[in-house]
Write the structure tokens for this entry.
Amino acid sequence: MNRRVVITGAGVVSSIGIGVDEFWRHCLEGKSAVAPIPAHWESYAAPHSRLWSPLPDINPESLGIARTERLQLDPVTVLALGAAREALERAGFALAPVEGGSRTFTLPGANSARTGVFLGTGLGGAITFLQNHTYHLLRKPRADLITYAEKHGPSADRKTLENILALMTHGPRFNPFEVSMVMPNAPSAAVGIKFTLTGPNVTYSVACASGTVAVGNAYRAVRDGRVDVAVSGGCEYFADEHGHIFRSFDVPGTLVRDCADPETANRPFDEKRSGFLFSQGGAAVLVLEELEHAQRRGATIMAELIGFAETFDAYSMMRLAPGGEQMELMLRAALADAGVAAHDVDYINAHGTGTKNNDETEAEIIDRVFGKSVLVNSTKSLLGHTIGASGAIEALVTALSLRDQTTHICRNLDTPLRDLNFVRVAGHFDLRVGLSQSFAFGGHNAAVVLRRFS
């Protein structure tokens, strides 16, 4: 017999808010964070897109991470640890420091061996890799250029040399912890180590579906009795010094092109959409728990997870398969897993990136499977695309929408591409069942189904 799985805690770091309360308030206000990309990135390339969604300034210590720890962690792991700590605390778990000053904790009330970590990420510690590669590549040539400039003194070429040197920036050292920082499993491992969780510790890297797949598999682990508690979610961080990662998304034309008005450039499901808004990063973590285990602790329950499914297109690395056959099969499998019919679903948090191909196909599939009455919005319309974190953030929004019986608008939706029931005004809705779906580069399709807890 399957066990019931509930969400008892959540944590989030995003461009529109750090912490669940601030994040959700800004969602309901329709707040967005859009700014010009760092000016110096344009010294290395001539991008088509010039906008991104930057994170607010973050003090790692505010996330419970000491300076000495930060030196051994990629920013993506810092975000994951911060979100995980908030999620565990909001779930009602006390953090008991381990003796010896190791800055690690145990969780009284949770059996460590039956508490697992399931996190998703697209690129993992890519920032550390790029920083160290730049240092490795440029340190000696840059030093040689400085020596040459000093030896020859003022000359007609001095200004040219100075311009070259200005572009050849690199960090102060080669980080000796690089291997443990760039591993894709570093965020999930760090969470397990930080909170002494010895149950299954798994990393999922399936591009934009990573967070959804992580939450879905955590749900299965709790439902099937393999663990009682699961720390699940997704994380990503993309702000490298030279704008390399931004360019890798910009060159194939996936990012917003219409940048004349930053406030309206990001417009999923709108006829005038031109691509997705690149996000600096983010993280969301959900604490999933077996219902009776949560009730014995007196935990507050946000929502119940009732279904999950995933499929694969086997079609293209960068494009959704025409017709969306596997997307539709995945959605119908998720509904079957949840034991609900399509007409039972009241709300869909769509993948909704703002790219031409994705939004057209996704809207068609929503219409085909669910019809025109289900509420639909895109959280990416507020905070851009966080890749590996996006599915977890959107699952969190779905849970909060069910808990509070309201949800945020689909921002900048002036001319919808299809006649669907997009959320145009935030207000009260009767939401019993919600679904959060992701469709990723490579062809990965995944969705989780949630139900209002009562």
